[in-house]
Amino acid sequence: MTKKYISRLSGYIFLLPYIILFCAFLIVPLVYGLGLSLFRWEMLSSAPAEFIAFGNFAEALSDKYFWMSFWASFRFTIMAVPISITLALAVAVGINSIPEKKQSFFRASYFLPTLISISVAGILWRWFFNTEFGLFNAYLQKMGFEPVPWLTDMSWAMKSIVFMTIWWTIGGAMIILLAGLQSIPGHYYEAASIDGATKWQQFLLITIPLLKPVLLFVIVLSTIGAFQVFGQTFIITRGGPELSTRVLVQYIYETAFTKYRMGYGASMSWLLFVVIAIFSMVQFKFLKQK
Fold first, then answer.
1. Which residues contact 230 (CB under 8 A, 6 or more apart)?
2. Alpha carbons 211 and 96: distance in angstroms, whole number
3. d(Cα 81, Cα 223) in Å, to the nearest integer?
4. What is the per-residue pLDDT across 22-50, written as a single tens digit (0 to 9) for each?
5. pTM
6. What topology does CATH give the domain 57-287?
7. What is the number of alpha carbons within 13 Å of residue 219 lying toward its C-beta?
């Protein structure tokens, strides 16, 4: 064997553990789920699984509850992603502008909520949002305002979930954007200052263009995560009131693991995968760097 062949072979050997895990936990479940979506398999029925081709997909596309759940996921994504990315960028810019010795405290403070599990965070915020004895309404009443039906009113429930999600996830996006900001060479800003550019002009003409690849990465990841939201709505509202916060992943979960319609649940999962892929490709098309 030549040294070049041995070097190449050693690279594949080092990659082998990841490839095995990637196939075992991603590729195999995807292929199995696709196969499952082509069958009518209801575990509560004694009838064997029946091959119906794309019948489950046709049923999903005509199911009003599927579209209600999809619309809930879409509304959550449209509200959560732009606000969270904007706030994360603002926080990252603010932290980047202070002395380096003080940055670690603020980085840790904003990143700390992301270390809390969704179960703990959901229970905590469900108490915050409680209409009768919740923390938020207690402060509002002390200031002379009427209590807000955070989780019991359809016009407030999804906004409350978005508010909690932003608090819980902003730290992760902020860390990535801060790393991108700190990778921009300082001499660009020095040259712009010499030419008389204001801080706002420097942000628009230097920071945003050079940060675009990082922004694209964060936006795509945030969009994927938003469409897959489940824990927040399941723990805090259980999909209520009147199914206004029952997102698509929760509907898939209830269909597959409560009603035991495994084939139908798998078909909806693949439809969600297609939607996420389309949104990701559109974002790459409009945001990718030329």
1. 247, 249, 250, 253
2. 13
3. 6
4. 999 989 988 999 999 999 988 877 788 88
5. 0.90
6. MetI-like fold (1.10.3720)
7. 21
